[in-house]
Amino acid sequence: MKQDFYRILQESKGQSKRLSVGIFFLFCNSVCIMLIPFYAGRMIDGVTKHLEGDSAGARRDVLDAYIGLLLVGLFGGLFQALRMYMFNTASYKVVARLRNRLFTNILAQEVGFFDSVTSGSLISRITTDTAMLKNVATQNLSMALRGMATVIIAFTFMFYTSWRLTLVVLAAFPPLIAAAIWQSRRLRVLARLTQQATAKATSVAEDSLGAIRTVRTFGQENHESSHFASSVNEALGVEMSYGRRSAIFNGCLTAGVFITLGSTFYYGSRLAIEDDLTIGELNAFILYSINASFGMALISGTYASIIQALGASTRVFDLMDRESLLPHDGVLAPDTTETGVSVELRDVHFAYPGVPDRPVLNGLSLNVPAGTCAAIVGASGAGKSTIAALVQYYYAPIKGQVFVAGVPVGEIQHEHLHSLIGVVSQEPVLFARSIRSNARFASPDATDEDIWRALEQANVADFVRDLEKGLDTWVGERGIKLSGGQKQRIAIARAVLMNPQVLLLDEATSALDAESEQLVNDALDAMMSGRNRTSIVIAHRLSTIQDADSVAVVSEGVVAEQDTHDNLMKIPDGVYANLMRRQLAGLGASTDDLPKLAQQEQKKTK
C-alpha cells in the first residue's frame, strides 16, 4: 500500500509548487480556525469580568476579542479560497497528465493485447480509475493535511491551555490508530474488487451500446438489460460489503472520539470547579477538542477514500507500466521510391496469443515481388487474413520471418512501415468524426484539394458534394450514418491519399451489394494500377484472381500452390482447381464456364 501511495505522490511531482503553496495556505487556514476558540474564550472571560464588577475591562476584552474574530474570519476565508484554488488546479493537471500517459501507453501495446481486453475495461481505467487517483494526489491529500494540521494545531493550543486535559485526550490515540490500520487492510481488498466489478459493468454497457442495431434487430433489449443489471448487481454486492465495513469502522471510531470528548469535558469541569481552569479556558479547550475531533474525522474519512482509490491505483499503474510484447523499436527506413516494395513470408509459423495450441500457419512461405499483384485464396479460416496481419506487424511469427522491402518488419521504423502499406478491409473502420477527418486520417497534411481528388478516384466525390455539409459531414460512430459501400469508398479515399507502395485488400467487396461492389471495384482497380505498386488481394472475384500476376492457395497453414490462374487450373487434382470447382458448382456452372463468368463479372463493374 505504501508503494502505491508513494507512486501516486510521485505522479504529482509536476505540481509540487502548486501543492506546496496550497499546503502553506492550508496551515494558515487551520491556524485561523484554531484562533476562533481562543478569542471565544477571551470573550467568555470578559463576560466573567463583568459579572465580577470590572465592566470597563470586560468591554475592552470583548471588543478586542471581537476584532480578532473579524480578522480571523477575513483571513481564514482568503486562505481557504487560495488553498482550494491551488489544490483543485493541481488536481486537474495531474489527472490530465495521467490520462494522457495511460492512453499513450495503451496505444503502444501490441494488437494481441486488445484481443483479450475489452474496450470498456480500458475506458474505465482511463476515466474512473484515474479520477480516483486524482483525488488521492490532490483533494484527499489536501483534506488529510488539513485534518493533520487541525489536530496538531488544536493539540498545541490544548496543551497551552491545560496539559493535564491534553494527556487525557492523547490516551485514546493508540487504540484508535491500531483499529484504523487493522481495518484498512480489509477495505483495500474490497476496494480493488469494487473497481474490477465496476469496470466489468462498464464493459458490458459499452459492448451493448456499440452493437445497438444488432440488439434491436433480434429484440434482445430485455436480455441485454438483464445482463447489465447482473453486472451492476455484482458490483453492488461488493460495494455493499465495502460500505458495511467502512460504516462499522467509522461508527466505532466516532464512538471512541465521543467517549474521549465526554471524558475530557467531565475532567475539565472538575478542574474548573477546583479553580484550576477559568470558564473561558474550559470553553476554549472544549472547542479545541471538537476541532481536533473534526480533524481526526477528516483524516479517517480521507483515509477510507485513499484506501478505495489505492484499489484503482494497481489497475492504472499496471497498465501504465506494461511494456508492449511487440515494441515499436525498429529504426530502419529503406528508400523504396525507385525499387518498389516486395513482400515475403519465409517459413512462418503462427498461432494467435489467445489460442496458442491452435496453429494457424505451419511453415508458410510466400513471395510477392515489387510491383506485382498476388491474389490469396483459400477456404474460410485457412489463414488468409492472418497473412495480412503479419505483414502489418500486428503480430510476430512464432518461427520464421516476414520481410517488407527485403527488411524484417520488426526492424523497420514503425511510422515508416505503415506509410508503405495501405489497407482496405472487409469492414472499414471510420471514426465518429467528419468525412474530412476520416479521409485524411493517415495523411494529416492533405489539403481539401487532395481530399477531393482522392474522393474522385474512390468514386464517392459526387455523393459527398450532395451532402449539406460536404466534407464537414459527421459520419456517426463507426460510420453508422453511411452505407457499407459509402464507408468502403471513404476508406479507399483514405488509402489513396496515403499513396502507399503496398496495397492490402482483405475481402474488400465481399459484404457489398452489386451496385456498391461495382463502384468500389472500379476504385480499387484504379488504385491497383498505380505505378510500381505491390498488391496483395485476399480475393473472391474471378476477374481479380484471373488478372493477378500470381495466385497463392493457402491450405492447412501453408501455401499449397502458387502460380497464375491458368496454370493452376491445369492441375487436375490441384487444391485451387478443386476450390474453383466447388465454387462453380454452387453457381450451377463448370470450369468450362470460367472465361464466360469472368467476362460477365467484368461487364458488371464497367
TrEMBL record:
<feature type="transmembrane region" description="Helical">
    <location>
        <begin position="247"/>
        <end position="266"/>
    </location>
</feature>
<feature type="transmembrane region" description="Helical">
    <location>
        <begin position="65"/>
        <end position="82"/>
    </location>
</feature>
<keyword id="KW-0067">ATP-binding</keyword>
<feature type="transmembrane region" description="Helical">
    <location>
        <begin position="165"/>
        <end position="182"/>
    </location>
</feature>
<dbReference type="GO" id="GO:0005774">
    <property type="term" value="C:vacuolar membrane"/>
</dbReference>
<keyword id="KW-1133">Transmembrane helix</keyword>
<keyword id="KW-0547">Nucleotide-binding</keyword>
<feature type="transmembrane region" description="Helical">
    <location>
        <begin position="286"/>
        <end position="312"/>
    </location>
</feature>
<dbReference type="Pfam" id="PF00005">
    <property type="entry name" value="ABC_tran"/>
</dbReference>
<dbReference type="InterPro" id="IPR027417">
    <property type="entry name" value="P-loop_NTPase"/>
</dbReference>
<dbReference type="GO" id="GO:0005524">
    <property type="term" value="F:ATP binding"/>
</dbReference>
<dbReference type="GO" id="GO:0090374">
    <property type="term" value="P:oligopeptide export from mitochondrion"/>
</dbReference>
<dbReference type="InterPro" id="IPR003593">
    <property type="entry name" value="AAA+_ATPase"/>
</dbReference>
<dbReference type="InterPro" id="IPR036640">
    <property type="entry name" value="ABC1_TM_sf"/>
</dbReference>
<feature type="transmembrane region" description="Helical">
    <location>
        <begin position="141"/>
        <end position="159"/>
    </location>
</feature>
<feature type="domain" description="ABC transmembrane type-1">
    <location>
        <begin position="21"/>
        <end position="308"/>
    </location>
</feature>
<dbReference type="Pfam" id="PF00664">
    <property type="entry name" value="ABC_membrane"/>
</dbReference>
<dbReference type="GO" id="GO:0015421">
    <property type="term" value="F:ABC-type oligopeptide transporter activity"/>
</dbReference>
<dbReference type="GO" id="GO:0010044">
    <property type="term" value="P:response to aluminum ion"/>
</dbReference>
<keyword id="KW-0926">Vacuole</keyword>
<keyword id="KW-0813">Transport</keyword>
<protein>
    <submittedName>
        <fullName>ATP-binding cassette superfamily</fullName>
    </submittedName>
</protein>
<dbReference type="GO" id="GO:0005743">
    <property type="term" value="C:mitochondrial inner membrane"/>
</dbReference>
<dbReference type="InterPro" id="IPR003439">
    <property type="entry name" value="ABC_transporter-like_ATP-bd"/>
</dbReference>
<dbReference type="InterPro" id="IPR011527">
    <property type="entry name" value="ABC1_TM_dom"/>
</dbReference>
<keyword id="KW-0472">Membrane</keyword>
<dbReference type="InterPro" id="IPR039421">
    <property type="entry name" value="Type_1_exporter"/>
</dbReference>
<feature type="transmembrane region" description="Helical">
    <location>
        <begin position="21"/>
        <end position="40"/>
    </location>
</feature>
<keyword id="KW-0812">Transmembrane</keyword>
<dbReference type="InterPro" id="IPR017871">
    <property type="entry name" value="ABC_transporter-like_CS"/>
</dbReference>
<dbReference type="GO" id="GO:0016887">
    <property type="term" value="F:ATP hydrolysis activity"/>
</dbReference>
<feature type="domain" description="ABC transporter">
    <location>
        <begin position="343"/>
        <end position="581"/>
    </location>
</feature>
